Recover the amino acids of this structure.
């Protein structure tokens, strides 16, 4: 994802300029551009069509820098800037909780030059006593280090799907491949994955292996066998392919989908019946006869249980539920009737409201809420009161023209540091949908943060709490919340909690979704789109909902247009 690489560089430029004490407007310009680029995943298309300046916050100067990076892999201005700052400081700035001031301090006072040194100093308590460094600061630094480490070890679900799709597409074109599926944690739709497992049926495995190792996506072949090979993709992700016979495909798919603990429990059940399960099938120990192997359904059936969807296979009660025929009927992508969190070009999105409406309509949706940022979020083009008027007028006009589709006038409202909302209640009442969100003050105490969200839930105009825990994969961990209290407030006030499908958010997380559901909370699955292409992220939001055991009834935006108007406060 080139956009993220450039975004990171712009962010670093802003930080270096800050260390150098440069003009605050220049610093902000780079920060704003970095933020905008996070949401642009086809940056090359923009460059090819000479449309980089269409991206909010990108002027001629930054467009030229983006082009330079796309053609040469470098931005010379950044390379020059780096020369002016000690390398150690730049390294420390990679830790999300460390700002320019702290990095400088750590480097100059303690001569800390890299992340492993920083970790050591933090653990040994040697950072305490430094100006402005308290125990909480050290705690945050250690958390930040963990985030950097994890971010480099695992791949987000969207990138993993993209890579897997490219391999599968290429292999699927072979006549020797009879069937091909993703297995492993990607099939279970875990929020991040370590590697990608692919399983194929073929009578000519050698041909398939040759094609796999010769794929355009391959950077390096790490192992090549007759029925199994491993490669590194161009971005360094490990991809494994196994070729199996049609007869044992179900057993293999189950075996390689996992999870490990799910499979262990199934094996234990089988042993009690005098059977054994492996990647080739279920066999009678006595007669060695194969009892089931072709499909997963057949195997679950033999074991006396309903088919278990891959997203549930984590050994968190799904086997027990399947045995009692008590599995939930999981929500599906086509249950979704609309997206309630989409940004237009009124704030930091790329598309016009008309374009968004058209894209949502062609997805088969009945409605969309265009929920731009509120005034206080300046870096993301928050809307002033006069902007709001213009926007409302435009939506009214469009709605008169559209058939079988409604655009809701929405907003993503800042929850300030004491839990108050950005616009007053008279303005909030005007909106069809109000989504409240925290974008600042993440370092407050658990009590303070909880109070802010609870207070927002209690506001009679707030319908949804967006990305409730604020995490950003590889950049920021969730802030601390007392979930018991948040869930209770959401339930009591009929406020939906969002499942944000944007791949670096996926917030709420699956385990929290399930815990909230048990308390009777309702959910909204949204994409937080900043361009119409992002609307496809709905599938990741739905995947998290499925991992959280949700059914259609738990999610408000599965409601038809008529019904959802009743849900609104
Ligand atoms: Zn937001
Ligand atoms: Zn948003």
């Amino acid at each position: 994802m080139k956009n993220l690489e450039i975004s990171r560089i712009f962010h670093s430029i802003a930080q270096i300029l800050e260390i150098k004490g440069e003009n605050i407007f220049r610093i902000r310009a780079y920060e704003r551009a970095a933020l905008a680029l996070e949401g642009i995943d086809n940056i090359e298309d923009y460059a090819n069509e000479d449309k980089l300046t269409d991206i909010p916050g990108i002027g001629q100067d930054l467009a030229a820098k983006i082009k330079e990076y796309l053609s040469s892999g470098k931005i010379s201005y950044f390379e020059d800037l780096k020369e002016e700052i000690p390398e150690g400081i730049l390294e420390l700035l990679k830790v999300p909780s460390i700002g320019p001031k702290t990095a400088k301090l750590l480097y100059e006072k303690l001569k800390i030059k890299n992340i492993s040194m920083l970790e050591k100093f933090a653990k040994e308590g040697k950072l305490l006593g430094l100006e402005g460094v308290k125990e909480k600061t050290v705690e945050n630094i250690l958390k930040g280090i963990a985030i950097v480490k994890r971010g480099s070890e695992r791949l987000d679900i969207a990138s993993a799907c993209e890579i897997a799709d490219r391999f599968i597409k290429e292999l699927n074109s072979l006549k020797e491949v009879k069937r091909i599926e993703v297995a492993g944690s990607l099939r279970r739709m875990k929020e991040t994955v370590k590697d990608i497992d692919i399983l194929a049926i073929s009578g000519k495995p050698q041909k398939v292996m040759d094609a796999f190792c010769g794929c355009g996506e391959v950077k390096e072949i790490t192992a090549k066998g007759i029925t199994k090979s491993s490669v590194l993709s161009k971005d360094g992700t490990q991809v494994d392919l196994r070729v199996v016979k049609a007869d044992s495909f179900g057993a293999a798919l189950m075996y390689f989908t996992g999870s490990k603990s799910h499979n262990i429990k199934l094996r234990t059940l089988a042993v009690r019946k005098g059977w054994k399960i492996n990647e080739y099938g279920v066999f009678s120990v006595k007669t060695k006869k194969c009892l089931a192997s072709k499909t997963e359904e057949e195997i679950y059936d033999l074991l006396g249980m309903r088919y278990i969807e891959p997203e549930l296979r984590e050994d968190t009660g799904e086997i027990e539920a399947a045995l009692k025929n008590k599995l939930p009927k999981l929500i599906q992508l086509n249950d979704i009737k609309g997206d309630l969190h989409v940004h237009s070009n009124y704030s930091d999105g790329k598309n016009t409201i008309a374009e968004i409406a058209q894209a949502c309509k062609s997805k088969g949706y009945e409605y969309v809420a265009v929920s731009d940022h509120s005034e206080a979020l300046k870096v993301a083009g928050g809307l002033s009161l006069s902007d709001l008027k213009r926007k409302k007028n435009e939506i009214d006009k469009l709605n008169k023209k559209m058939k079988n589709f409604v655009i809701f006038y929405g907003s993503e409202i800042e929850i300030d540091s004491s839990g108050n909302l950005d616009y007053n209640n008279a303005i909030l009442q005007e909106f069809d949908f109000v989504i409240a969100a925290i974008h600042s003050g993440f370092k407050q105490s658990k009590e303070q943060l909880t109070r802010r969200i609870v207070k927002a839930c209690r506001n009679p105009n707030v319908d949804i709490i967006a990305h409730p825990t604020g995490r950003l994969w590889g950049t920021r961990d969730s802030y601390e919340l007392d979930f018991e209290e948040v869930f209770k407030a959401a339930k009591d006030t009929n406020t939906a909690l969002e499942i944000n499908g944007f791949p670096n958010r996926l917030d709420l997380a699956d385990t929290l979704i399930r815990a909230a559901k048990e308390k009777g909370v309702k959910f909204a699955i949204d994409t937080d789109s900043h361009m119409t292409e992002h609307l496809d992220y709905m599938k990741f939001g739905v995947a998290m909902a499925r991992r959280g055991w949700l059914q259609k009834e738990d999610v408000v935006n599965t409601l038809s247009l008529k019904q959802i108007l009743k849900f609104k406060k």
User: Anything to note?
Assistant: The domain at 155-244 is CATH 3.30.460.10 (Beta Polymerase; domain 2). The two ends are 39 Å apart (CA to CA). The mean pLDDT is 93. The chain is about 45% helix and 15% strand.
